[in-house]
């Protein structure tokens, strides 16, 4: 009897399988049951001010895409001539090169010449393909084109890499991500769909050159500006917001009120 009474009580063990433990109910737990539980192990604490600053890049690119859509709308309505579009293309291309030259830490003449040569090939190829783009969707109704274009633009915004750019920046070791490349291809398809609804080959070439310049080079230019000076990045973002709102107001006052 003394040996039985001196036996220490059996300790409850936390086991997943093995049946009931003698001396304990089937649903018994003790204070050690939750001692190994880890909650919110991978939670990252965010700084509100930093999150607000990072959201500027998202707002900036939304304005860029909105400006592209507005130019598409004005072009489809024949408000903008193809000569004006070509002039806009030249201004954007020259401004983009100037920004890259001024903000890049180190860029060689060889690399600059390679950029110019690639863009020349790109423009020549685009001009040669303009007649094909012009008649590419002739058998498809316009309503289907508008719906598919809207869907592609939304998908483009969803997959776009807002932390980087669609092209490798000069001096940057980071390459574009897979989702960024997919997003870029989607934007090109949307541009082709819009271009196929324009009245002439000159319009097709001008609008395709404009769209591809923006979707290809605008993220690169904005990335270079942000890396060079964050204040300049904020000023450019504010300017894009004001320009977008002004063009939206000119197009549709009700939509302008919704955006505000």
TrEMBL record:
Locations listed in the record: Membrane
UniProt main location, coarse: membrane
InterPro entries named in the record: Plno_GlcNAc_GPI2 (IPR009450)
Its EC number(s): 2.4.1.198
Topology with respect to the bilayer: Multi-pass membrane protein
A GO CC term assigned to this protein in UniProt: glycosylphosphatidylinositol-N-acetylglucosaminyltransferase (GPI-GnT) complex
Keywords: Glycosyltransferase, GPI-anchor biosynthesis, Membrane, Transferase, Transmembrane, Transmembrane helix
Pathway where this protein functions: Glycolipid biosynthesis; glycosylphosphatidylinositol-anchor biosynthesis
GO biological process: GPI anchor biosynthetic process
Top enzyme class: transferase
MF term (GO), any: phosphatidylinositol N-acetylglucosaminyltransferase activity
Chain ranges passing through the membrane: 55-74, 86-104, 111-133, 145-162, 204-225, 232-251
Stored PANTHER family: PHOSPHATIDYLINOSITOL GLYCAN, CLASS C (PTHR12982), PHOSPHATIDYLINOSITOL N-ACETYLGLUCOSAMINYLTRANSFERASE SUBUNIT C (PTHR12982:SF0)
Family statement: Belongs to the PIGC family.
Protein name: Phosphatidylinositol N-acetylglucosaminyltransferase
